Inverse folding.
């Protein structure tokens, strides 16, 4: 697993983020979050879930794929996971670990009716983005002289991401008629959406890695990702406090 350490960076890459970059990043996130939390479901989909009964495979596959493609917290974390992965088998391994974790807790959370505050879960997911950015920056190696197991971390955060969605689905009181089939279909859709999103990310990353600017801006990209993770955490924790 690659990481970017301060000792190996080009000096120009370690410059502070440009104010305009931070402004655009934070503005985009702030504009998007009030209308849809990290695991929120669109109003139309919410109504469909609440009113549906019986096995409805295709609609739930569609909603699962839509959730993943529009789930900025998932995409930020996966972007961090594959940032320094060059071999497809490595990408496949980490994505599979994340998918397994996501699947287990999505099904377990709904079927066992395990409910956790969506604010708490989403704050933890924001932390997962911060963690991955710090990992990519080589921070843990410098601070503690130890590199955490990245595979275990990916699986654990996959489990947490799944709980976030399970908590939201429970709020919509999905019908027990066809529940398991619909949940499986929804999760299949999530994985399809993940593959589509990752394909687009990998294409962009593939072109970027071929340019001289990749190593110059890799530090900046991960600091921006870490900042976004902190913003997600702050937003969710603020929501938790206000909702009390």
């Amino acid at each position: 697993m690659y990481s970017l350490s301060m000792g190996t960076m080009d000096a120009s890459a370690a410059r502070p983020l440009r104010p305009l970059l931070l402004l655009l990043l934070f503005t985009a996130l702030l504009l998007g979050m009030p209308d849809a939390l990290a695991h929120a479901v669109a109003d139309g989909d919410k109504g469909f879930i609440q009113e549906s009964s019986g096995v409805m495979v295709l609609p739930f596959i569609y909603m699962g794929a839509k959730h993943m493609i529009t789930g900025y917290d998932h995409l930020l974390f996966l972007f961090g996971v594959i940032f320094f992965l060059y071999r497809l088998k490595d990408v496949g391994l980490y994505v599979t670990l994340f998918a397994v974790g996501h699947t287990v807790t999505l099904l377990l959370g709904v079927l066992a009716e395990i409910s956790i505050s969506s604010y708490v879960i989403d704050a933890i997911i924001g932390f997962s983005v911060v963690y991955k950015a710090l990992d990519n920056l080589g921070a843990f190696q410098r601070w503690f002289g130890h590199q955490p197991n990245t595979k275990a971390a990916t699986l654990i955060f996959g489990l947490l991401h799944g709980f976030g969605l399970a908590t939201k689905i429970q709020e919509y009181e999905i019908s027990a008629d066809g529940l398991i089939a619909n949940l499986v279909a929804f999760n299949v859709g999530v994985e399809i959406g993940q593959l589509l999103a990752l394909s687009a990310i990998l294409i962009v990353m593939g072109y970027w890695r071929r340019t001289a600017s990749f190593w110059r801006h890799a530090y900046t990209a991960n600091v921006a990702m870490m900042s976004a993770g902190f913003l997600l955490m702050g937003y969710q924790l603020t929501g938790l406090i206000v909702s009390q």
In short: The chain is about 75% helix and 0% strand. The mean pLDDT is 77. Residues 179-209 form the longest helix (31 residues).
